[in-house]
Amino acid sequence: MSIIFFMIGISLLMALGFLGAFIWSMRTGQQDDLYTPSLRMLLDDELPDEPATLPQTPLTTKPLSRTAQ
Question: Which residue numbers in the chain have pLDDT < 70?
Answer without folding.
Answer: 44-69
